[in-house]
């Protein structure tokens, strides 16, 4: 095979892999929305606050190695199709991002406000380190120290807030 043929072959394999990963992500998403107790709980919690979650609120797409999912008010929930090592990993990611969606609708989170962002991260992550890492990625955050201050300033109140999980804890 010539070098050009090898490039084309690899390009074709990459495209097939992405298609397979996208289909797998979508199949798992649909299955988890029907059968996962934690995903169903979050769907019901969102419904109770007036947000009907649909399968199209989740987008499966390839991502870099730094994440397995994401949430944005404009785009909804991102599921990183190439980052899941199991259906359980995708389930945990879906619930994690659904908590952000819940916070967004329930508490009117301003995602550019570092304290709001820090509170939502702690609300669902329950760990300072992960909250600091996430807030550090906020475009309004200028340094690790600023992320640490934002997390520290809201930690006690946000860590104590277990909504929407009050019913099961």
How does this structure look, described?
There is one protein chain. This protein is mostly helical and 169 residues long. 62% of the residues lie in helices and 8% in strands. It is built from six helices and three strands; from the N terminus they run H-H-E-E-E-H-H-H-H. The chain has helices at 3-35, 37-48, 87-107, 114-125, 128-136, 144-160; strands spanning 58-61, 69-72, 76-80. It has a three-stranded mixed β-sheet with strand order 1-3-2. Strand 2 (69-72) and strand 3 form a beta hairpin. Helix 5 packs across helix 6 (144-160). The N and C termini lie far apart (61 Å).
Residue fraction in strands: 5-15%
How many strands, what sense, and barrel or not for the largest sheet?
3 strands, mixed
Number of strands: 3
**How do the strands line up in the largest sheet?**
1-3-2
Uncertain runs are none
Radius of gyration: 18 Å
Structural class: mainly alpha
Mean pLDDT: 86
Task: Assign an overall shape.
Answer: globular
Helix content: 55-70%
Order of helices and strands: HHEEEHHHH
End-to-end Cα distance, whole Å, is: 61 Å
Number of helices: 6
């Amino acid at each position: 095979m010539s070098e050009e043929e090898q490039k084309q072959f690899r390009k074709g394999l990459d495209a097939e892999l992405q298609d397979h990963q996208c289909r797998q992500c979508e199949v798992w998403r649909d299955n988890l929305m029907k059968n996962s107790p934690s995903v169903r709980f979050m769907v019901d919690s969102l419904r109770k606050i007036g947000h009907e979650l649909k399968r199209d609120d989740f987008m499966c797409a390839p991502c870099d190695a730094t994440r397995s999912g994401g949430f944005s008010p404009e785009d909804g929930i991102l599921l990183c199709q190439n980052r899941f090592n199991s259906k359980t990993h995708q389930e945990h990611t879906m619930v994690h991002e659904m908590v952000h969606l819940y916070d967004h609708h329930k508490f009117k989170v301003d995602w550019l406000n570092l304290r709001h962002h820090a509170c939502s991260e702690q609300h669902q992550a329950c760990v300072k380190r992960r909250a600091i890492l996430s807030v550090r990625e906020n475009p309004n955050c200028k340094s690790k120290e600023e992320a640490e201050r934002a997390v520290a300033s809201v930690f006690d109140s946000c860590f104590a807030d277990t909504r929407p999980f009050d019913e099961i804890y």
